[in-house]
Design a protein that fits this description.
Elements lengths: L4 E7 L11 E3 L14 E10 L2 E10 L2 E2 L4 E8 L4 E8 L1 E2 L2 E2 L1 E8 L2 E10 L4 E9 L11 E7 L8 E6 L5 E7 L7 E10 L4 E12 L3 E8 L5 E8 L13 E8 L7 E4 L6 E9 L5 E8 L5 E2 L1 E7 L6 E8 L2 H5 L4 H13 L8 E2 L1 E8 L5 E18 L6 E19 L5 E7 L3 E4 L9 E5 L2 E7 L14
Antiparallel strand pairs: 1-2, 1-34, 3-4, 4-5, 4-6, 6-7, 8-9, 10-11, 11-12, 12-13, 14-15, 15-16, 16-17, 18-19, 19-20, 20-21, 22-23, 23-25, 24-27, 25-26, 28-29, 29-30, 30-31, 30-32, 33-34
Length: 467
């Protein structure tokens, strides 16, 4: 196969009882090996039913995924045998369509594509039902959304987001940019039958220069929540330098005038990363990291819940990681330096975690949460060599993608850290976008499964994780 895969398993109960962490390789059943089509890569698992599961393969051009041209829809049975593959050309009546997404909704496959009509100055989002037998889209294109376009190259974008119970679908459309004006969006909420429940164009209460959207969600009642960063000045300082921003949650309902704004005030803590999910009762749950030093580092976790009716914060907690966890993967020399800084009270040199991005927030059934984050950064290296034959200098820029250790943090409903663990890993690649790096996460039953590329010989359950 040309590369090794490593499966790490973290087992714990997603309830209030028996919360323990166990790290080790999972038991894996492998399907047979298949030869990939030329210039196409398997990009996503779409969904499953009683007969098997569906996958998406996208064509590439010079190593970059193409939203135009063709895609492949694949069907595998429960024994992981490929039973059907179908090439889908992204054309309709000789017009080129752009691929947007492939979703399994209420047991049906839907292909989403878009088209920019230059003459009408409209950008359309379409859906087509896909036969689960032939894997071919039906001939009828249904308009899901349309937004205006102002100029070529700035036609807006579409995105799909599902509620926690999959009963509501949010179509979040970014309208074309207009300088020094508030960003404009169009939100459309559908039920699982793809029927529109409500739709509205919204203008954010801040200009583009001062506000950026981090993420958005839709709850089971069809309410839309937008989490963003509000900058104190025109200079956006998000990572690195002196903190210059705070988090804001905006909510929108079907009625005009239902807009609400919640400013997140974490006391004296500086929040470096934050995300949220919606509980079954409709209240947003937030979790993230805070730092004592600055925007690059992590000292502990910040957790709270928001009463959507009153705007009151409850179950708030900010807890530091213990010293052993912060220094677990350090070298002996680095750990000794951190110990000295701790003894001397030197805050500038005390241990913190660096360059961790919060990737996933898993809600526990008792109101707690599990955070999953990965150390990620990109280094840019400029190289120059002299051609001895011509005497000229050749310049080449190299991008090195670093996807390293994963951390998992289990938080109680009251905001306390019940346990935290590392999954050691080190992945460095150059000029490839890091496509085969990082990891995938699956939560099933009592376990979290993580899959990432590695050499299996690197795993030793008895080895010191700092080595």
């Amino acid at each position: 196969m040309g590369r090794f895969f490593f499966f790490a398993t973290l087992t714990f109960l997603l309830t209030s009882l028996g919360l323990t962490a166990q790290r080790g390789p999972a038991d894996v059943s492998w399907g047979q090996e298949y030869k990939e089509p030329t210039n196409a890569i398997l990009t996503s698992f779409v969904g499953s039913d009683d007969s098997g599961f569906y996958a998406l393969r996208m064509g590439t051009g010079q190593g970059v995924f193409s939203k135009q041209g063709k895609i492949y829809i694949e069907k595998y049975n429960r024994k992981m045998k490929l039973v059907k593959t179908n090439e889908v050309k992204l054309k309709y009546k000789k017009k080129d369509l752009e691929f947007e997404d492939l979703k399994l909704i209420n047991g049906e496959l839907f292909l989403f594509t878009s088209f920019k009509n230059r003459k009408k100055k409209k950008h359309y989002l379409f859906s087509q039902k896909v036969s689960k037998t032939s894997l071919s889209p039906r001939n009828t294109l249904n308009i899901v959304e349309e937004i205006p376009t102002y100029r070529q190259g700035d036609e807006g974008t579409f995105d799909l987001e599902f509620s926690r119970d999959s009963s509501r679908i949010l179509v979040f459309s970014q309208l074309p940019f207009q300088a020094r004006k508030s960003e404009q969006y169009k939100v459309r909420v559908l039920d699982k039958g793809m029927e529109t429940l409500w739709e509205r164009q919204i203008a954010l209460p801040y200009t583009d220069e001062k506000f950026s959207i981090e993420t958005y969600r839709v709850d089971g009642e069809g309410n839309v929540y937008v989490l963003g960063i509000l900058y104190n000045g025109l200079n956006r300082v998000r990572r690195g330098g002196k903190p210059n921003y705070g988090y804001v949650l905006l909510s929108y309902g079907p009625e005009e005038g239902s807009n609400k704004e919640y400013k997140i005030k974490p006391g004296d803590k500086f929040i470096t990363d934050l995300t949220f999910r919606i509980q079954k009762n409709g209240d947003p749950v937030f979790a993230g990291f805070f730092s004592d030093k600055g925007t690059f580092s992590v000292r502990g976790t910040y957790f709270f819940k928001l009463d959507r009716s009153t705007g009151e914060v409850y179950s708030e907690g900010a807890k530091e990681f213990d010293f052993d966890f912060l220094t677990e993967l350090m070298s002996d020399r680095g750990r000794k330096r951190a110990e000295r800084a701790e003894e001397e009270g030197n805050e500038r040199r005390q241990a913190e975690l660096y360059e961790y991005d919060l990737d996933k927030l898993v809600l526990r059934s008792d109101g707690g949460a599990v955070l999953v984050a990965e150390q990620f950064y990109v280094k840019t290296i400029d190289n120059q060599t002299r051609n001895l034959a011509t005497g000229q200098w050749d310049f080449r820029r190299e991008f090195r993608y670093h996807y390293n250790d994963i951390i998992v943090v289990n938080i109680s409903p009251e905001g306390n850290i019940e346990w935290a663990t590392h999954v050691p890993k080190r992945q460095i690649t150059s000029n490839d976008g890091g496509y085969f790096s990082s990891y995938s996460v699956c939560v099933t039953g009592k376990a979290i499964y993580m899959v990432f590329n590695d050499n299996g010989r690197n795993f030793d359950k008895d080895r010191d994780p700092r080595r």
